[in-house]
Amino acid sequence: MSAEERQCLECGTLLRGRMDQKFCSDQCRNSYHNRHNSDANKLMRNINNALRKNRRILAELNPTGKAKVRRDVLARKGFNFTYYTNIYQTKSGTTYYFCYDQGYIISDEKFFTLVKKEEYIN
Hints:
The protein has one domain (about 25-120). It is built from two helices and seven strands. A hairpin with a 2-residue loop joins strand 5 (about 95-100) and strand 6. With about 120 residues, it is α+β, with helices and mostly antiparallel strands. It has helices at about 25-60, 70-75, and strands spanning about 5, 15, 65-70, 85-90, 95-100, 100-105, 110-115. The strands form two sheets. A five-stranded antiparallel beta sheet has the order 3-7-6-5-4. It has a two-stranded antiparallel sheet with strand order 1-2.
């Protein structure tokens, strides 16, 4: 094989055509990128699943927009306290943790106040 001959990065097939071509087909290109990104995709998928589950739990326990719930109730339903989409801190120092539009304030060790942030909804 000469210096000008190129091979598909996925299957090794000899490439003909454009000089910047790296793959012989869309299937090889997709397979290559899926394999190289699988760890990152798996991590992101797991985090997104945890965030969606947290939001579902908060929405289920907070149908009216404001509710008080025991920490152990959230934990029993599978709420993962590590994951949230953003934090909002008021001027008075109150910290709100949000999973998209559903949020909570840690009232004390045992209770959380659940809130819904209406500004997120168009």
